[in-house]
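hi!! sorry for the late reply, been swamped w classes. u asked for the two structures so here they r. pasted raw, havent cleaned anything up. first the sequence of the first protein and right below it the tokens
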Amino acid sequence: MKGNVLYPRVDAKEIHRIQRGFVLSFDSGVEFSDVAFDAALNGPRAFPPTGGARMGEAELRGLRQACIDSLNQSSNYSGLPGTTAFDIAIGRTLFHAGRQSIGEFGDPHVWDFLTLILLPDLAAKRLAMGTASTVGGQSFQKRVTGGDRRHVFQRLWKRWLIFGPEIAEGGKLTEDDYGVTIERLITNRPRIAQAVAGAIIGSKYSGSERRDYSRIFMRKLQQTSGLVQIPEDDDSYLQDVIDAIHRQTIESIDREK
């Protein structure tokens, strides 16, 4: 299907009921429901009234199967933690699925559909792999609320969108790395984000020292961006800025020791 394709949305009036159903069935096992899928896809508010090509049932089921197949092949990422392999596999599939519908994937209600209707079992699997949190609690709720920066799937797609396939596929950035960089709006500019990723990976730090490095680096990047323009179209100048911030970050870390 060519052109910008519309994805289904979850009706805003139904989202809390659907989320509650997901939470209530989490411990016993969340499953994909053909009934819920058909109801959501054919609902009166499933698509915006503006018109345009729509994702059909076959395409959506194909996307679901592509996600399942990708996870089945994620064992090929030998040496990576299970959560990292999962995130790379799903992130890649959603990134490619959304390449013709980037605007659509910016709609939180599209993510509600993808997560709670099309891929609820996969979302539950990933949530069960993560840091323990109270099921139904505020933190858990954020993970299944479209538009939230901690969303279980949207954050994976955003990594690929911002950092690009080479970095996202490489698995060299940690969860903390992604968190501290993506939260800063300046890194929504892909070439700057990629340069930042290169600095973090190249720092050779790990554990708490890496978290400190990333935090200080991003703070100094924000300070620098408020003083001078950081261009994306001049690779040499951009690298000079990144190198200068790297040196300042190392100096700050050394002073704190």
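now the second protein. again sequence first, tokens right under
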Amino acid sequence: MGDFYQNGIITTLHNLSSRPIDEMEAELLQFSQIRPMSLVLPCLYSELEGPALDKIVTELAKVQYLNEIVIGLDRADETQYKHAIQFFSRLPQKHRILWNDGPRLQEVNNVLQNQGLAPNELGKGCNVWYCLGYILAQGTSASVALHDCDILTYDRNLLARLIYPVANPSFNYQFCKGYYARVADSKMNGRVTRLLVTPLLRALK
């Protein structure tokens, strides 16, 4: 992504990681009674065979505050879709797999294309677009989180910290974006640079 800085009122929360996860999840469970929460997982079929997703599913199976998990499955044939159903069956939460290459969603896509409403390009954006459309059509979630399926260091702390600011009814946040340092070739990259370092340097000028 190109460098940019945020306009408007932006709050940077640095310290959510110091709270015990059990304490935060207990609050989220309380919040979920009045503000149901969903999680979107945009997923390539190849990620089911990768090193990260198995651990992600194991961690998510411990999360009690989610109302629903919506998995957007890309680049899968029918056999692979059936395997995905089995793979995600470990999740105790209500979950739905949107098979984006399947006949039902392709039919929906064709109808929307004829109306000029479908995304023009395939990929993660299109995947997420349909997942969010499904959640909005359900009308049962007040807060929605989204994260990738290739996070090798994943644990359920990540999800709790990501959704807490928008799920807490005492806060007034409508959007939350997690970020962390990405350092490569002696250069800082990623959201920690774009959302923290660059605005800070601009403010100090």
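hope this helps!! also noticed smth abt the second:
The chain has a mean pLDDT of 89.
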